[in-house]
From TrEMBL:
<dbReference type="InterPro" id="IPR035906">
    <property type="entry name" value="MetI-like_sf"/>
</dbReference>
<feature type="transmembrane region" description="Helical">
    <location>
        <begin position="99"/>
        <end position="120"/>
    </location>
</feature>
<comment type="similarity">
    <text>Belongs to the binding-protein-dependent transport system permease family.</text>
</comment>
<keyword id="KW-0813">Transport</keyword>
<keyword id="KW-1133">Transmembrane helix</keyword>
<keyword id="KW-1003">Cell membrane</keyword>
<feature type="domain" description="ABC transmembrane type-1">
    <location>
        <begin position="62"/>
        <end position="273"/>
    </location>
</feature>
<dbReference type="GO" id="GO:0055085">
    <property type="term" value="P:transmembrane transport"/>
</dbReference>
<feature type="transmembrane region" description="Helical">
    <location>
        <begin position="146"/>
        <end position="171"/>
    </location>
</feature>
<feature type="transmembrane region" description="Helical">
    <location>
        <begin position="252"/>
        <end position="272"/>
    </location>
</feature>
<dbReference type="InterPro" id="IPR051393">
    <property type="entry name" value="ABC_transporter_permease"/>
</dbReference>
<feature type="transmembrane region" description="Helical">
    <location>
        <begin position="192"/>
        <end position="211"/>
    </location>
</feature>
<dbReference type="InterPro" id="IPR000515">
    <property type="entry name" value="MetI-like"/>
</dbReference>
<protein>
    <submittedName>
        <fullName>Sugar ABC transporter permease</fullName>
    </submittedName>
</protein>
<keyword id="KW-0472">Membrane</keyword>
<feature type="transmembrane region" description="Helical">
    <location>
        <begin position="68"/>
        <end position="87"/>
    </location>
</feature>
<dbReference type="GO" id="GO:0005886">
    <property type="term" value="C:plasma membrane"/>
</dbReference>
Length: 283
């Protein structure tokens, strides 16, 4: 191998090893201990993993996280596809509208979440009181049954922009001649969308679903800014639980084991999504 290639690879390999591989292996090691993040520790074997299976708080965080990720992913992709179809038409000031719809993505997540927190706590209840809607007359963030929907709204609002850009890129790869031929055959807009557009942008649909689902599974910033995991533990996501109890609650080894399981689940689901998408491409 040429020396130049070695000097290009070695620094990257060292950074990857020091910043990723060693911390990962160290974390895996501590999952077999009772380490609290400080002080002494001893080996406990698989105790942390078995306790995870009997922990109702852990199960609750997984239920909330997956419910949130599924609903938010579906809404994000449906809305983004609709916007992409609209922005792909011959609109006046098309570039301007594309820029406007991309603005939410470049805003800091915490800033957006704090703004929505103010609106949901102060402005929206006033609207609910004016309309006489009891469920909307108080802050949604204080409602144990509806707080997760408020988080979905914030997450979807900010994620739609990036997903729309990917769909726009996919739509621009569809030859215009296909639409012209289908119009001559009498196919309507819905028929063209279902039978021509969607099959031709399946790769973009697949990557958007994988990126959306993986991103929403890691929801953290919105939880911190909007609810802090409350009311109670109703909106406590997996990542927020790992952070709070692992670094602040003295459950370092226990929550690290939770993180390892969480990581494996995300990897398996991501590969499964890609396999399903690739099988649709071959069809």
């Amino acid at each position: 191998m040429e020396p130049a290639f070695v000097w290009m690879i070695v620094p990257a390999a060292l950074v990857f090893t020091v910043l990723l591989t060693i911390p990962l292996l160290t974390g895996v090691f501590y999952t077999f201990t009772n380490f609290q993040g400080y002080g002494d520790w001893r080996f406990v074997g698989l105790t942390n993993y078995t306790n995870l299976l009997r922990d109702d708080i852990i199960w609750g965080s997984y239920l909330f996280t997956f419910k949130y990720a599924i609903v938010a992913s579906v809404l994000t992709n449906v809305i983004a596809l609709g916007l992409a179809l609209l922005l792909n038409t011959r609109l006046k000031a098309q570039s301007l509208w594309r820029g406007v719809f991309f603005v939410p993505y470049i805003l800091p997540v915490l800033v957006v979440s704090y703004i929505f927190s103010y609106l949901l706590t102060n402005n929206l209840p006033q609207v609910g009181q004016a309309l006489g809607w009891q469920w909307l007359s108080t802050s949604l963030l204080a409602n144990e049954d509806l707080a997760w929907l408020a988080i979905v709204v914030v997450g979807v609002w900010q994620s739609v922009a990036y997903t729309t850009i990917i769909y726009l890129a996919g739509l621009q790869t569809v030859p215009e001649e296909i639409y012209e031929a289908s119009a001559l055959d009498g196919a309507g807009p819905v028929r063209r969308l279902w039978s021509m557009t969607l099959p031709l942008i399946i790769p973009y649909l697949g990557i958007n679903m994988v990126l959306s689902f993986k991103g929403f599974l890691g929801v953290f910033d919105q939880i911190v800014a909007l609810t802090g995991g409350g009311p109670g533990t109703a909106t406590q996501s997996i990542s927020y639980l790992i952070f709070k109890n692992g670094f602040q609650g003295g459950e370092y080894a226990y929550q690290t084991a939770n993180g390892i399981i969480y990581f494996l689940i995300v990897v398996i689901l991501s590969f499964a999504q890609l396999r399903v998408t690739q099988s649709q491409e071959r069809v």
